[in-house]
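Pinned message: reference record for D-3-phosphoglycerate dehydrogenase
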Amino acid sequence: MPKVLISDKMDPRAAQIFRERGLEVDEITGKTPQELRAIIGTYDGLAIRSSTKVTPDLLEAATNLKVVGRAGIGVDNVDIPAASAKGVVVMNTPFGNSITTAEHAIALMFALARQLPEADASTQAGKWEKNRFMGVELTSKVLGLIGAGNIGSIVADRARGLKMRVIAFDPFLTPERAVEIGVEKVSLDDLLSRADFITLHTPLTDQTRNILSRENLAKTKKGVRIINCARGGLIDEAALKELLDSGHVAGAALDVFQTEPATDSPLFGTPGFISTPHLGASTTEAQVNVAIQVAEQMADYLTTGGVTNALNMPSLSAEEAPKLKPYMALAEKLGSLVGQLAHGAITSVAVEAEGAAAELNLKPITSAVLAGFLRVHSDTVNMVNAPFLARERGLDVREIRHEREGDYHTLVRVTVGTRDGERSVAGTLVGNEAPRLVELFGIKVEADLAGPMLYVVNEDRPGFIGRLGTLLGEANVNIGTFHLGRRQAGGEAIVLLSVDEPVTPDLLARVKALPDVRTAMGLNF
Ligand SMILES: NC(=O)C1=CN([C@@H]2O[C@H](COP(=O)(O)OP(=O)(O)OC[C@H]3O[C@@H](n4cnc5c(N)ncnc54)[C@H](O)[C@@H]3O)[C@@H](O)[C@H]2O)C=CC1
Ligand SMILES: O=C(O)C(=O)COP(=O)(O)O
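Predicted structure (tokens):
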């Protein structure tokens, strides 16, 4: 039974779903990285929010881990390349808390406009400072969005309802989408100089880190108010403090900080500064959404292989997964076969689908080919890390669909490119289920690829099969299945046979010494 660890505070529905889906679940929150490292080894799944840091160090100890599920959006607390390299799927819940977070940004914008926290503190202190708290209206003000994705576009929608003019800097925002969400697409400099309010809604990446740098903050309009419900690393906090002190920035509301938990910050106590402790996603509705979603996604993956919202693997629906499973087995075997047989440096891998296979999602099939192929050299390769490792090796990977149906109702062909040219193998599914090789390096040969096998290339001459059979019999090697193919009579022929025990170097040497043998190899599936 797969085991899941919930390591950050999560709605109880997550644990309930894991149990209902037949998984074992432990909820152990608030652990230090060292404590987590000590227990992670037995778990197949790890469900987190933003507190748990999935570092290379934690992953190293996570010897059984197959999936990390982030009940939320931002995954900057997960080292995705390290997870991918270890073959761990990383999933998030990209929409579950977006409305809630957008509403928090709007709440902070109002709080800044009317100095609500200070006014509240003063009033409750019995001061009744009616003249101290003069606010500004939002109507007709310019709101500058940095990042106009899911959350940014909801903020834009709400702000337009408040009669604000919304401008957005987002290099990936298309002009059509800008029109659709009712924002004016602008450059960052334009936004900085025009916005009365600036709100950040980008992920934290190498491109967005410090996007409101000291230099960029200095380009803002005097009296600007800044809201950050995205990630702490997006703003230079020291520069922000100075600009608040000088009065250039009229107000700043941060829900997120460079270092969290932020129990101490030079910004604390600065006039015009408001903070919340990373509450963007903290509503009952959002937490129920993300807990249910992450648990369903992780349970799907651990029980059916279905993949939804993975950041390091193509999606594969729970309905698709059973249909693709036999294809993935076929693809792994074909990948493994070319991996074992192809000599020399491989520079490209092409995966072609014909007939029924052409109707399917090819991404998982390709990942399985690459996994089978790369596993020949490393047994830690799986479908998650194979595409990543292939990229690292500079392999040119292509997927090709053919509408035509050939001799088989469904066919997957794998062609690898080497310095000596291309070599290709192809297979089908018998009864839509059982993987079967049908072509090897241009020669038609039908074989099940399973267990230890012996592969021989020979001259097609009478008597050869008998001599090979005799040799194997004398060596006490039991033959399970025997498959033959040839290019043309008297030309190059191949023998593929399954044997009960792995082929020993000694047996291989004797096979190679037989007359008419060009080459021989032991294979394993
Ligand atoms: N405070 C909180 O509790 C929460 C914070 N978040 C944060 O909000 C972020 C945004 O979430 P979504 O809108 O759902 O993500 P999203 O992926 O839908 O949108 C992000 C947008 O940022 C844009 N972007 C990327 N690089 C950029 C750059 N260099 N400059 C400008 N724009 C850039 C993208 O094109 C995209 O449109 C998350 O990554 C997360 O870090 C999300 C939920 C809750
Ligand atoms: O979803 C996100 O990106 C968030 O930042 C929410 O964080 P949390 O789950 O509340 O720790």
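Pinned by admin. Summary line: Residues 49-50, 72-74, 97, 278, 280-282 surround 2-oxo-3-(phosphonooxy)propanoic acid (ligand 2) (CB under 6 Å).
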